[in-house]
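Exercise 7b. Backbone tokens:
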């Protein structure tokens, strides 16, 4: 190992979406635990923020929209990578309901443009670097659709995406597999469950609940609150990504989820997540207790998938990955972090023009 994190020969890493929640956690890890040069390709959209990365001599931002094929091609040539970690995507299901076209542009066309640029870069490499090169596509468990009360998603589960977001991610997964089978591009895919942790743009469930509780405003609970997600702390996801990217078998996909050694303990209903956050808030901010009085049922998300759960035994067996944080540990760190960083939340919400209102309620038939 050259750096303790990546094997010998991975000197230049291109991370797409490195100004987002998971991508910035990957970039921070690469900067703190390795000696690689990191090229961060990001269009700097509403959910982007570079505060957590700051200035670093081994980090370079390439402010590029993957929807632009020429700029994408130039960025790939400039980065001249040994490894590509592709995280850039529009990522919020509710936004995909209100405005699906941005999801097709970024997630489908953007992935296509990146694959084309990366393929021509890979084909031009000298044989030693070409033999080492890898492209890792980061995807979601949402491509598999919705589970009943039993069973888990695995690498052999048939695709059945049901939201514009998951359909666009499914399409991008298929493009990546096709570039492997048709052009032999050396790819690895991962499909991960719901992530949570520090620095997540405050429009997703956990930061939304924390900020509503701080403000003493109604905490929205979609439908009956019984939808189940398999929660994974973002730093555990980063461990899995770097292992799969550098040691995963080429052409293979790996499911990543919170189960690991903690068994099904990472599966929670939305109601359980919200109530646990309220309990932590009672502990950390007793003046607002009981915060659970703020929980308010709202109309469900259209087409809301009922349950996601991951069987992560393949990545555990083949690559030795297992999550290190239980849901309770990760959630406590996360709630504390948001309470200590309310200024950051305010600043990114202002910058994005998003003040915490409900999105994703467009009924069938309403235009974008
Ligand atoms: P995020 O929305 O926080 O960040 C995505 C980043 O991608 C943003 O900085 C955005 O500007 C950038 N981006 C979007 N479209 C782009 C384009 N056309 N060109 C260049 N940059 C673009 O998302 P996240 O939660 O960090 O998710 C990262 C990846 O992980 C996504 O591919 C997502 O599908 C996947 N994923 C997320 C989760 C989760 O729970 N958050 C779970 C599994 C998989």
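Sequence design result:
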């Amino acid at each position: 190992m050259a750096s303790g994190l990546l094997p010998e020969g991975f000197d230049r890493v291109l991370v797409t979406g490195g100004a987002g929640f998971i991508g910035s956690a990957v970039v921070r890890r690469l900067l703190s635990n390795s000696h690689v040069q990191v090229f961060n390709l990001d269009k700097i959209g509403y959910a982007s923020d570079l505060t957590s990365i700051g200035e670093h001599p081994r980090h370079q931002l390439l402010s590029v929209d993957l929807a632009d094929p020429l700029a994408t091609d130039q960025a790939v040539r400039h980065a001249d990578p040994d490894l590509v970690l592709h995280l850039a995507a529009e990522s919020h299901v509710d936004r995909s309901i209100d405005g699906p076209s941005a999801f097709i542009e970024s997630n489908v066309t953007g992935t296509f443009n990146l694959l084309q640029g990366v393929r021509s870069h890979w084909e031009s490499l000298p044989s030693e670097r070409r033999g080492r090169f890898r492209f890792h596509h980061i995807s979601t468990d949402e491509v598999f659709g919705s589970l009943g009360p039993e069973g888990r998603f695995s690498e052999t589960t048939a695709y059945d995406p049901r939201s514009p977001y998951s359909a666009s991610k499914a399409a991008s997964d298929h493009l990546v597999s096709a570039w492997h089978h048709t052009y032999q591009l050396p790819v690895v895919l991962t499909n991960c469950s719901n992530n949570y942790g520090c620095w997540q743009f405050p429009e997703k469930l956990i930061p939304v609940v924390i900020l509503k509780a701080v403000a003493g405003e109604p905490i929205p609970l979609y439908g009956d609150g019984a939808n189940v997600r398999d929660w994974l702390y973002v730093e555990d996801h980063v461990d899995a990504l770097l292992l799969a990217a550098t040691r995963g078998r080429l052409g293979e996909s790996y499911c990543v989820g919170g189960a690991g050694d903690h068994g099904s303990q990472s599966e929670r209903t939305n109601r359980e997540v919200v109530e646990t956050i309220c309990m932590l808030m009672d502990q950390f901010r007793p003046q607002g207790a009981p915060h659970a009085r703020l929980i308010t049922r709202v109309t469900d998300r259209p087409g809301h998938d009922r349950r996601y759960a991951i069987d992560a035994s393949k990545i555990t067996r083949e690559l030795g990955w297992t999550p290190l944080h239980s849901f309770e540990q990760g959630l406590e760190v996360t709630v504390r972090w948001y309470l200590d960083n309310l200024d950051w939340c305010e600043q990114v919400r202002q910058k994005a023009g998003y003040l915490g209102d409900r999105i994703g309620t467009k009924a069938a038939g309403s235009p974008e």
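Instructor comment: Residues 17, 19-23, 42-45, 47-48, 65-67, 87-91, 106, 110, 138-140, 169, 192, 194-195, 201 surround nicotinamide-adenine-dinucleotide (CB under 6 Å). The longest helix spans residues 101-124.
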